[in-house]
Structure formats: C-alpha cells, structure tokens
Amino acid sequence: MNTEAIKDLLYKMADDALVIGHRNSEWTGIGPMLEEDLAFSSMAQDKVGHSQALYQIIHTVFGEREPDVLAFQRSEKEFKCCQLVELPIGEYDFSLIRHFLFDHAEALRYEMLTTSTLMPLAQLAKKVRGEIKYHVMHADTFLKQLANGSEESKARMQASLNYAMPYALGIFEKSAFEDTLIGEGVFGGEEKLQHLWLEKVTGIVTTAGLQMPQVDEAKIIYGGRKGFHSEYLKSLLDEMTEVTRIDPSAEW
Amino acid sequence: MYGNTSLTAEEAKVLNASVEDPQKLEAFEARITRGEKIEPGDWMPEQYRKQLIRMIEQHAHSEIVGALPEGTWITRAPNFKRKLALIAKVQDEIGHGQLLYSAAETLGKTREQMLMDLLSGKSKYSNVFNYPANTWADMAVIGFLVDGAAIVNQIINSKGSYGPYCRALERICYEESFHLKQGHDNFVYLATGTPVQRAMLQEALNRWYRPLLHFFGPSDRDSQHSEKLMKWRVKLASNDDMRNQFLDQYVPKIYELGLTLPDPELKKGDDGIWVFGDPDWDEFKRVINGDGPCNKERIEVRRYSELAHRWVREALLNPNEKYAIPMA
Ligand SMILES: [Fe+2]
Ligand SMILES: [Fe+2]
Ligand SMILES: [Fe+2]
Hints:
The complex is a heterodimer of chains A (252) and B (328).
Chain A: H1 3-25, H2 34-62, H3 67-72, H4 83-86, H5 92-113, H6 119-147, H7 151-169, H8 178-183, H9 190-207, H10 231-240, H11 242-246
Helix pairs in contact in A: 1-2, 2-6, 5-6, 5-7, 5-9
Chain B: H1 9-17, H2 22-33, H3 46-71, H4 80-105, H5 111-120, H6 136-157, H7 163-191, H8 195-214, H9 227-231, H10 239-256, E1 267-268, E2 274-275, H11 281-291, H12 295-307, H13 310-317
Helix pairs in contact in B: 3-4, 4-7, 6-7, 6-8, 6-10
The structure holds fe (ii) ion (3 copies).
C-alpha cells in the first residue's frame, strides 16, 4: 500500500476532527440554552476522540509519533484540515450550519470507509459511524426548526449557509493521491463523496425551505489540504499548545 | 457555598416571624422528623418553599457560572487525556445546572425567571467563581479543591428533606466523585512534575486558599441563625462544621505533596478543630456584593449567552405555520 497516500488521508481526517472539536468545545458554557451547551460539548468530545483514534492509527500502523505529539506539536503548515473547520464559532447560526455541512460529509465519508482495505480504518469507521449519526440528527433537527422558526431565524440560517458553502466545498479538495487511494480500495475518493454529500445536503436544505447556494468553482476555498490555511488556524494552534509550551520537557 | 443558606438579618427576621396553619405545620414537621422526603405536590410552609427555591437556584447558578472559568481552559488543555476529561467535566457541571433548575422549577419558579434573576444580580452564585483561573494549575486546584469543597457541601445537602433536590444531588455527587479523581490526578501530576509545574501549582494554591476558606460562608459567630431551617432539614450543618470537615480532609493531602498553604496560623487543634488566620471577611462581603475580580465578566458572559441567543429560543418556541405542513 502507498503509505504517503494513506497518511495524507488520515492526517486530513484527524486534523479536521481535532479542529472542529476544538471549535465545538468553545460553546461549552455559552450556548443558546443549556441543552445546546450539552449537545455541542458532547459532539466536541466525540470529535476530539475521533482525532485521537486517527492519530493513533498513524502512530501504530505507520510508526509516527504518539497522538499527543501529532496533535500538539505539529506546525500550522503540517496541518491538513480544511478551512471550514478553522473559522471561529461566530454566532450560533454559523456554528450550526457548519456543523450541519461538516457532519454530513463526515457521516458519508465514514460510511464509505467502512469497506476500506485499510483494516484499522474500516474498523474505526464502523464505530464512528454510529456516533456521527447522532451529530447529523442533531444538526438536521435544529436546521429544520430554525429554518422554520421566525423570520429572523430563517434569514440567519440562509445567510450563514451562503457564507459557509464555499468553505464547505473545500472539504472535498483533492489530494495528489486520489487515484492511488481509489485504486487500492482505501477510500472511494473526494469526488464521489462530494457528489453524495451535495445530493444529501440539497435535499435537506430545500425541504427545510432554504435555498441551496450555487457556488462557482473559482469561489471555493481550497488550500487547507495542502497546508494553506486561514488566518485563524495559527492562533487556534497557539492557544491549543499554550500550556505545553510552558515546559515542553514536562508531562502534563 | 453551592447551596447557600446564609441569611441576612432581615431575611432571618421574616423567616422566624412567619406563621403557618399550626396543624399542617405540625404534620409537616412530623414527616421531616420521621425522615420522610417532602415532594412537590405536598403542603409546605411558604418560607420552606422560598428558602429552598433560593438555595437550589443559587446552586444551579453556581454550576453554570462555575463552568465558565474551567470552560476557558478546554481549548488550552495540554493533551488528549486532559482535554477530554475537562470537556466532560465542564459538560457535567452544565448538566448539574440543568438538573437543579428542574428541581427548583418543581417549587414554582421557571428556569427563565431564575436566569433573569441571575443576570439582574437578584440571585447569587458561589463566590468562589468570582476569581480568575489564571493558569493551567488553576484547573488542578479547582478540580481537586473547589470540587472537593463542593462535594462536602453537596453530600450534606443530599440528606435534606426536599425529595427532588436530594435526588438531583445524589446523581450530582456520583459524577462529582469523577471530577475529584481527575482533579486529584492533575494536582498530583503538577505537584510531582518539573520545577516549573510545581511552582505553577504552588502559586495557584496560594491564590485559591482564601476563596476556599470563604467558600463555606462566614463564621457561625457572624451568621444569622435559623432554628427553622435546621428543623426543616434545609440547612444540615453549620458553615464552620463544613469548613472544618473540608480542611480536615484536604489539608493533609496538600501537605503530603510537599506543598504549603499561605497561612502561618493554620493548624489543627487538639479538639480536632482547625484554626486559621483571618481570611478577610470584608473581602468576602465585597466580592459577594459584586466587587470581585470577575463578577462583571461572569455575568456579562451569561448575558451574552442569554440575550444574543434569544432568537434561537424564540424560534424554537414559536414555529410558524409552515412547519406544520408535513414534510416530504
Ligand atoms: Fe457540579
Ligand atoms: Fe463544580
Ligand atoms: Fe464538579
């Protein structure tokens, strides 16, 4: 198997999960109601847990450093997350829309990966799939309710959807290894995933009474998968590693 | 204290002067003496209801405001283990708030009203959360000692007379035992770590010592007493007794790790009672009345959360007709 190709896939998934988990966790204590604090907080735990499990595969199967080192000691350039997950939490409407768009992509990605020829990844995907199902249910429920709540909530949902869509399409930025991954049966590829995702998301968005934004290829925010990030990732990582940097020799 | 029962002189007067139907009161008090729990639909003295609402509401506020200082460290937790433990812990605290608001609602005050009273300053929360969490070591001190103090308070309160509060507290205490374990683990790690880590911890401990002494409220000598609250099993132990129990349990564990506390007068007397230097009760009063290092910030954050998201709650409450149309 092509190690570089697989590591690239694992890193981008792990980094996505870690960074969105970081963002979701920022809602702990300040959500629109206690129930939403709890929901975002438990999704954050799941995501951070998924990232840890993915880094663990990189560590055990490919001999890279431990998950704590991979998460807390790589530079911004080495991160492969998409820019969608890097954006600040903003207001609740944006966080909810991002969660909706991202989690549908995750759910479908893990679904595809349950048949991966990389056994540890297929096993993880089977487990994670069950958890993501609840994330998606949560997103769908709130999206529908807020899209049909008041004039204000509907307008906010639509505006955030329009804003997030070019970033969300950046999730599916192709790596240099697409053909290899598909050929070796590791992963069905970003193009297929994007196709499934668009179909799924469009259905839910239109049923909820919102307009699916049309995005020109040129407007899609790519770069994350190749180490080009928004201005927000650097400060996110600085914050994340603030404590470890005080004494890198220490165990925390 | 989480579930605070300290009264002002005025409140104590009203409470002690309150008059109830003597027969009903007698039956009520007899039930409590027999160790029965009072349930939401049962007859209860107005003052019993009032004091319980106040206590449970303050406890609930303490949980959700208490989530804020720790919440800001989630994104900075230094590794997977600590990060996951901290998110889970803070999430538990929010869950405790939710449970306690529900318990208080059984007495006739809505969560919305309680949250509004928190913002207006009409109702209070534990004083200890008006202090900042400056470093990662504060997470260890809070997780081990603030949660430790809270557990002393909560275990005692769980033996009270109001059923819904006791049941909420039983579940809370169960979860708190994990917080204590994690907090202790973090505390020991820093205490036995590098010189930098140890120094961080000692410094945090020095800052939290006084707020921890304040945690259980003013000394019994300076508190308003109410025989009624004791008799009704709303208040179950005196402030000094709880504080002493806390010192007795935790000071030895701190010393064991070679750490110190910034109080030369602190020692255990032959009678088993801990003596300590004057913890500046004027500061306690200032902070409780709104003039602490973080009072404004804490309330502002809650206000943001309440007001900035009003549209969410309103949209969820008032779906327009379109939503009634069955979806394909
Ligand atoms: Fe709690
Ligand atoms: Fe707590
Ligand atoms: Fe706790």
